[in-house]
Structure formats: C-alpha cells, structure tokens
Amino acid sequence: MKPHVLRYWETEFRRLAPRKTDAGHRLYRRIDVEIALRLKQLLREEGYKIAGARRKLAQDAGEVDEGPLKAKIAELEERQQTEDTALLSIRKEVVDLLKLVEE
Fold it and tell me: In the chain, how long is the greatest CA-to-CA distance?
C-alpha cells in the first residue's frame, strides 16, 4: 500500500494508530498491520465504503453494543405514546369547549 493511503486511513479509523518516533516516522506494530490488512480487504476486495468499514471493524472488535440503542428506541416509543395520549386529551377538551361556546 502506498504511504498516503495509510495516512488517510489513520485519519478515518481511530484503531489504526501507529506510534511515531521523535523524528516523526511511523512505527507500525503487529496490530496496526493487521488492521491495515483488514481495511484493505474490506475497502478494496469486499467493496465497503469508509463508514461501512468503520462499522465492520467495530463489529469485529465487539465494540458494537446494541443494548443502549434498543433502550433509547424503547424510551422514544414510550414518550411518543405519552405525547399521543396527551394530544388526544387536549383535542377532546377543545371539542368540548367549542360545543359550550356554540350553545
């Protein structure tokens, strides 16, 4: 791989973070090389885009935890039901008031 490709991937993927010497040279550890090879596979061979490769790397590392996401969705659905109930109650009161005014 060309150096400019690796440098770009370093900016896009936090997990790819080689250490630098005092002179600014990159020192790739084994894990950095493995991540770079996995990125090459995802982006070039499997056709993933940057965002998809980022998600796939997170899944591979077990960093994706859907528990908080499911909890947030449940919370939003509950709030929506509460708001719907409140709006129906307000609508009923407005209709009742309109009937009183018309009399």
Answer: 88
Q: What secondary structure, in 3-state letters, does 29-94 show?
A: CHHHHHHHHHHHHHHHHCCCCHHHHHHHHHHHCCCCCCHHHHHHHHHHHHHHHHHHHHHHHHHHHH
Kindly report, residue by residue over 58-80, the tens digit of the pLDDT: 888 776 555 676 777 778 888 88
Q: Are 36 and 16 in contact (CB under 8 A)?
A: yes
Structural domain range at position 45: 3-60
**Phi, psi torsion values for 48, nearest 5 degrees:** -70, 150
89 and 48: one domain? no
CATH number of the domain that residue 19 is part of? 1.10.1660.10
Reported as a single tens digit per residue, the pLDDT across 78-88 is: 888 888 888 99
pTM attached to this predicted model: 0.58
